[in-house]
């Protein structure tokens, strides 16, 4: 029985590890990205990006005369653990701001905690929208900043008349495809001309689906594929696509989750000409981008590492936060939030991003064609588009608006002129 | 009866005493009710660990005592969580919706309220209609009953089919694994009506109790988990003592002989299978409101295999072994993967525990199986001078780690 | 703002033609400078037409350069040039009009024009007139591809002319086929079109269907009374049928402004809200308006009082439907053509259906061979020896990573595959032998614990792979001769890599049979599995036999890993994707019999494809239902499809 006692005592002592109260002259920045588990590959890069940005800021003399201190935790791609670690960061480590999350489900897991404790989170990944939390700034793309412009490109530039929406079965593809279906119907595309398919994570047997897509061409309309396929599954998909001899000129594929990082696991020779839509590509020309890539390579110590869209989102988000804190003169969440509205910062693709009162960023939309070297040729770049928290293309969401400055509400029903709820849906 | 039962099983009293002491200790050190020595997030971790101990007891009953290596008990755990989560989500959303609709000029019809709740809950996954599985979500009593009924029913149907056709041993293990894989794949689909990969979230916010701080709520759940664990332990100890327990162990050691003796082996196995499924359901129903979110990844086959790992490391065939295993391995895992364990620099390479913990866990598991089949619980035997006989690799039933081998006492 | 500036700039430059006398092509390009810079398919056409119709000899060259993304613009004056890379930072500019190198400039002084694929298609179409009779067959072929993608009526004449002079038989065949397709679409003579349609018979080409289907495209319209004879009617619909529910029919009437809309629930609500007087609507207190009946009553009262639009009654609804016809009409005016096309399509559809079934069968066969390949090692270790090896999936993964590592060392893909296969076998054979020696042989009598111990090894191996190779997928590229697909026709095709996997599976089946039935090791293995003590008594070294057999099973898993890595991905989780399926394949098929494993793989493969076919939009559902089916199947045949009988069946 002694052993049992010892175990319990040991367990207790774990919780008693009272944080060493750090000297008051640092500002703590929480980094909440998975360093192990399935999401580690994507999120580790973002953790490194944050460390680089904090490092650079400290070299510039820190913030409000204090040094910044990064507090890194590992939620291990385990969604409940995100909530637990967020609470730990805010109550035990007392961080002033958090940068983190990748998947929507991890964000939804953190939301209740962060709203309860009035924290601040910067979320850097493109997502399905339909959300605007008082305590979150969304620096990734909302559907109208990625999906809708890409579809417009398909309709106008490529003359696509028939759409195959292929996605991994989770919330981002589901919601995005719902919005797109509704949008396409509004553009006069018949329901029969939209083919939707969902596959599991890591799916590898693509022959039938690719054959189905090719068969769509049988009624003489130009077919385009909109892919929200996530992660590893893309490899099998593109391999099968190449094997079936599908050329980008016949059936173009535009992907929303395939960037420089994903392509590095693939031989892209057979994929030249297929497309991706993002707010940033590594090939963007400009001094800011060149500088960013240079410091990234120097920080990580590897010239071969690529940069990608969520990294730029963190870059913009972090710098905006720094400016907002400087402006507010404090790291107090409410003051920083007020200072964030309308905050402007140059993005890496040449242009100015602006934080809206709905906590979404305005960014240009870029469309790139895959090159043989795994990079993208930017063939289209729009003026900055303001992120829309609630899509205009779903009837339930079209009536909703988000304005934290004047309406003080993230889910405001413009029909009934009432705030549906102050806290988010989760 | 109760008296004699406790007399015969003094370890139950010891366990309950320790559990009570532990609960009291945490209560006195918590933020809400004590000296604020341990943080709310750690209270939640401890509460969740207690729930894991409870399902480990269920696993020990079904595997350590009855010899069925089920690799699917986390399916029942998850189902329990889903059942309670449905009510939590529905009720919380209903309150929000009613409050917002109360501001409109024309009072809403009941159907409009339900539609608005549907839009709120399923808007995330791009739909707005309530699937059939949510039929009882508006009633706490019914959903709580479902916490027992749904896992029990699934276990009953699955167990009846499997035991009836005499699927045993590793075949049954693979079959239970297939069951939990099928269930998690099913729940991953949006069509399942339980919000697919997003699952049910925000479960830590109890409806109508928005003003109660999480530090207090976490204590409530901690107490409830401790109570459930205590009751579950007593129930399990009671089931395995006496004649019923002897039959169960008999089935584990030689199913055919028990059958020849005239016992309905299938009936006994089915009873244990369903009972443990229900215990797992309760554990899940207490676990997920503390975790805050449940999604299908929670019931992937790997989780159930880990459950077997905990029980094996703790020592199967003894209930406290299961508790120790679950508490020890899950807390140590949390510690190592939490990035708190110090890295070991070897000069040419730095061992980062986040990366290497899994390797250590996997290998320690092999070592336990090979050299210490009794697990940590075996240490108690050592202390009491009970030794396993040297069998030179010969079999003596599947339960080499069982406590019943009194003949081995020297 | 930028565009405006460009337009302004272009206008200014246009106003100064004297400075622009650089050359005729450059003039045209400068004329359209704004749209060329804007680079959008919607606005680019005038520029391309102007170039193509300029009659200048350089036009073809300019268009081809542009299409190949080799046209650059000098920032200083906005002139367009062909640029050739000299080195990373310097480009040589070549003038289009003179064809001479103008000079070398730094890269940041020029901008590359990046026409998107829409514009490239427009350029390709414009190039058709130059390329159809080009001496280079590849260019002629390009022209045909451009027509196929984007045909226009004015392509028909040049195409017909070019057929007469075509020498290359392959290109000629394409030209003739394309001519018939264009005839169907664009020829003014109805007889010629029908003849062209009939000339194809039951051809399976997607291009033919893509030509016929638009002819058969219909649009649904509503007309008052009976439809006129000028319409080419496909069919008449009755409101209330499955294709046209009554509500949908009425909605069509409303859309066509032939009837007044019915009041929707939200409109009703809005009308009620607009008419609240002293907390009452038409005399009913607002608080009572929380049911549909009360709202209907209140609304009726409002409508009667003229304060809201009256509702449409059931009788009006019926009358409106009855007074109109609902028809699907062809966009194509000629009935003879649509009839011919419809007949042709019917014949084609029949054959397409059959071929789709064949294609699905091939897919299923391929999936079955993948499952079989993944499970065949397990058929040895689990099926024959009875050892549960949960780390089997990790052996598959090790094989795949071995392939990856070999490919890093040997860059030639063909050679690297030839080396990788025996290497993968060697690596996993060694790992298997080590595992058998160190762990499994102590647990032969405790199958459940073997399961747990090997599971421990499995998670350890997976994590080690993650630590070495990272979680990102690694490329394992197949040699060029395995690229592409074997195309029987436009419906049935299968990629070469899948055929290779199928062949590999067959080879292993043969190898397994040979090994078990014809070799000493096979005999000894069977003896040891059936009765280890007896086998020992006969002088068989059972430790050695077990070790070799286990190593063999693991080695085959390694080779399967190379094959699977080639067609899918190489990640540390590769093995765990296949482990449950592999076990189910062996269990469903029947333990201890290779034919059973084959039957199991075939069943699972075909079943999964069958369910996918029934529910094409949700692949996840197919996997779920397949597993449920297997669970139920095992209840009824607990020993699998091919069950061992008698003594061999063991307990």
TrEMBL record, chain A:
Record CDD domains: PBP1_FmdD-like
Signal sequence, renumbered to the chain: 1-22
Keyword entries, A-Z: Signal
Pfam families according to UniProt: Peripla_BP_5 (PF13433)
SUPFAM superfamilies listed in its UniProt record: Periplasmic binding protein-like I
Protein name: Urea ABC transporter substrate-binding protein
Organism: Thalassobius vesicularis
UniProtKB/TrEMBL annotation, chain B:
Organism in which the protein naturally occurs: Thalassobius vesicularis
Keyword Cell membrane: yes
NCBIfam families for the chain: urea_trans_UrtC (TIGR03408)
UniProt-listed InterPro entries: ABC_transp_permease, ABC_transptr_urea_perm_UrtC, LivM-like
One Gene Ontology cellular component annotation held by this UniProt entry: plasma membrane
Recorded topology in the membrane: Multi-pass membrane protein
Keywords: Cell membrane, Membrane, Transmembrane, Transmembrane helix
UniProt name for this protein: Urea ABC transporter permease subunit UrtC
Main location: membrane
Subcellular localization(s) per the UniProt record: Cell membrane
Keyword Transferase: no
Segments traversing the membrane: 140-163, 170-188, 220-240, 260-287, 293-312, 319-336, 356-382
Any matching Pfam family: BPD_transp_2
GO molecular function: branched-chain amino acid transmembrane transporter activity
From TrEMBL, chain C:
Highest rank taxon of the organism: Bacteria
GO molecular function, one term: transmembrane transporter activity
GO biological process: amino acid transport
UniProt keywords, alphabetically: Amino-acid transport, Cell membrane, Membrane, Signal, Transmembrane, Transmembrane helix, Transport
GO CC term, one of those recorded: plasma membrane
InterPro entries: ABC_transp_permease (IPR001851), ABC_UrtB_bac (IPR017779), BCAA_transport_permease (IPR052157)
TM stretches of this protein: 370-392, 413-435, 496-516, 547-567, 579-607, 619-636
Pfam families: BPD_transp_2
Predominant location: membrane
Signal peptide (residue range): 1-22
Topology versus the membrane: Multi-pass membrane protein
The protein's name in its UniProt record: Urea ABC transporter permease subunit UrtB
Species in which this protein is naturally found: Thalassobius vesicularis
